[in-house]
Amino acid sequence: MPAPKSLSDDGLVTELGRTQRQRRRWEAHEAGLITEAERRGLPRRRGFPSTTAWLTAISGEPGSVCRRQVAVAEALQQMPETKKAFCAGEVSESKVRALAQAQALAPEQFAADEKALVDQVKTASAQQAPRLVAAWKRQTNPEGAEAEAKRLHQLRALHLSEGLLGMLHLSGDLDPESGLIVRHALEALTDPTNLNPADSRTPAQVRADALVEVCRSHLDGSNGGRRPPRVLVTLPWNTLQQGEGIVDTEPGPIGAATARRLACDATISRVLLDPDSVPVEMGRATRVIPPTLRKALELRDQGCAHPGCRMPARFCDAHHIQHWAQGGQTTLANLRLLCRQHHRQAHDNQPYPRRE
């Protein structure tokens, strides 16, 4: 193994690539060992309630890491082409997880398409790979892809724990819609153009400080005069009007119901596309709900209009009872304040109860 300092620039790049492929091979080998341990029932024979608990104990890694490793090991048993590429160091564990989600969605079709899909994912960047898999999901099983987009919301989680040196450790996962909001809120405070060129903080430190600033602003009450989050999503008109389909966003796909909910109170611009989906004209941006109407709505409802909910108005969305994309009027009579939870329920076609 050559010493890093002895390598030329090209040699350093080559050696790093070789090391990454070797690491993937070892990860694939580790997955095989986990599978065999599970087949033998070794974790339970050693007194552990699950393979994840056993792996956490012997590896010293957090439970979340071990849980992902166990899930990958289990999925690979149904994915021979993916397993072959993983063992050869041609795909990373993150790409294997993305392929495993596709396999779980439509096992029979995945078996038929696996080789072609794996070949595409091999050469795809970290940003392109999830989009390739998402496109395959939509084409193969549109209803399943939309259901999975909703399922992602149920998988959201945030964990806070005391770390080493008294630091607070944060870990978790957000569904694509929530990820958009958090990403754009942090990017607004971490944009290099807004920072002092002499700022010596690392990007990770800048993001950490941005998160603290967002929380501090909330606690200070400086979010008065609420403005909806600045999130850019491009929606096909038929998706917005019909409420069916999947919309791609930067963190991942969102369902049509989510897209319609985001558009309930947003700034809308009409965009014309050419046959190659390149924008050729953009209309003037207009607010769906003007500030004066928002104030009147807050004065009337005081907070979430769902029976029994006491969420304050500043944390609520303005909801169109009949969506404006379907001809609903943006008037006080057609609007209700709803908190995020009840706004989601309203767009998931659940009966809407009126608060007396």
Strand content: 5-15%
Task: Note the main sheet.
Answer: 2 strands, antiparallel
Distance linking N and C termini? 74 Å
Strand sequence of the main sheet, in spatial order? 1-2
Structural class: mainly alpha
Shape: globular
Overall pLDDT, averaged?
A: 82
The poorly predicted ranges are 222-226, 350-356
Give the topology, please:
Elements: H1 9-40, H2 42-45, H3 51-59, H4 63-76, H5 80-87, H6 93-105, H7 107-123, H8 128-140, H9 142-154, E1 157-162, E2 168-173, H10 176-190, H11 203-219, H12 237-242, E3 246-248, E4 253-255, H13 256-263, E5 267-268, E6 271-273, E7 279-282, E8 286-287, H14 291-301, E9 316-320, E10 335-339, H15 340-347
Antiparallel strand pairs: 1-2, 3-4, 5-8, 6-7, 9-10
Helix pairs in contact: 1-4, 3-4, 4-6, 6-7, 6-8, 7-8, 8-9, 10-11
Explain what you see.
- This protein is mainly α.
- The protein is built from 15 helices and ten strands.
- A hairpin with a 5-residue loop joins strand 1 and strand 2 (168-173).
- Helix 1 (9-40) packs across helix 4 (63-76).
- It is globular and about 70 Å long.
Which key features would you list for this structure?
about 350 residues, mainly alpha, two-stranded antiparallel sheet
Quick overview:
The protein has 356 residues and is mainly alpha-helical.
